[in-house]
Amino acid sequence: MVDLLVASLKDAETVKLYATACLEINKAAKAIPHLQAYAAQDRDGSIHLLLGKAYQQMHQPTPAGLAMRKAEQLRSAAAASKPN
C-alpha cells in the first residue's frame, strides 16, 4: 500500500498525506526527501511544518528549527495576504 502511495507522489497534497503517515509510524526519514522536493512550492507553511516535525523525529534540532521558523514565516505571510 505504501509503495503505491510513494509512486503517486506527484503533488504537494499527496506528499503531505504521505509525510503525515510516515510521521505516525515513526518513519520520518522516508518523508524528508519528498518534503524537501516540494518545500519551494510551500505557500502556507504546511510542508515546512511537516518537515520540521520529521527532523524533530530524527533528532536533528537545527534543521527542525529552521523548517519550523520558515513554516511560521509562510503562515504569517499567507494570513496577511488573505482578504478580511
Distance between the termini: 42 Å
CATH architecture: Alpha Horseshoe
Overall spatial form: globular
Report the top-level CATH class.
Mainly Alpha
> Per CATH, what is the topology?
Serine Threonine Protein Phosphatase 5, Tetratricopeptide repeat
How many E strands?
0
What level of helicity do the residues show? over 70%
Question: What is the succession of H and E elements?
Answer: HHHHH
Could you describe the largest sheet, including whether it forms a barrel? none
Describe the structure.
The protein is built from 5 helices and no strands. The chain has one domain: Serine Threonine Protein Phosphatase 5, Tetratricopeptide repeat. Helices cover 75% and strands 0% of the residues. The longest helix is centred in the C-terminal third of the chain and has 21 residues, at 61-81. Helix 2 (12-24) runs antiparallel to helix 3, helix 2 packs parallel to helix 4 (46-57) and helix 4 (46-57) runs antiparallel to helix 5 (61-81). It has 84 residues and is an all-alpha fold. The chain is globular and about 40 Å long. The mean pLDDT is 90. It has helices spanning 2-7, 12-24, 28-38, 46-57, 61-81.
